[in-house]
């Protein structure tokens, strides 16, 4: 079952790791992935739960990585966009990402920020498609802005947690102006929706 192997590899899991998470023997998973063995429904449910997917995803045709969603398709939310790419974590869609990171020990925060980076990498082709094909669609631009903002929040929060000091670079006024310009552009886009 090619789809099982793809879902496992997208989550950067080894056969052994998926075996431990699901309770299904690594050899059984390997035989299923190679098509040498049919999976029982109970086995598929265990694997789906471990991979945080619906069982139906084992039988769906995936959207290839690097390929944009169909023209005209704008996801409803970051959650939907992450799910469509088979991303296991959904930190970018967490409205309280900063609070979550602030409350985590440093090691867990570092791991979470790595996962945020992997999420951004997975949806980068879709974000590029949104900007390229849907720049007049305020919802599409809000998705792009939200993903970018969440990514920056994660990176900034980790730097602060690591105790890094930020020294003014003399660009403060220019950055403030750039942020105001961005805010005005977003408001203008919202008005053209």
Q: What does this protein look like?
A:
- The chain is mainly α.
- The chain folds into 2 domains: 2-58, Orthogonal Bundle (434 Repressor (Amino-terminal Domain)), CATH 1.10.260.40; 78-192, no CATH class.
- The chain contains 9 helices and no strands.
- It has helices at residues 2-10, 15-22, 26-34, 41-51, 78-84, 97-103, 106-133, 138-161, 172-192.
- The relative contact order is 0.10.
Keywords:
mainly alpha, single chain, 434 Repressor (Amino-terminal Domain), 0% strand, 64% helix, 193 residues
Query: Sheet bearing the most strands, described?
Result: none
Indicate the structural class. Answer: mainly alpha
What is the number of strand segments?
A: 0
Give average pLDDT, whole number: 80
Rg, please? 20 Å
What's the end-to-end separation, in Å? Answer: 43 Å
Helix content: 55-70%
Choose one word for the global shape.
Answer: flat
Outline of this structure?
The protein is an all-alpha fold. 64% of the residues lie in helices and 0% in strands.
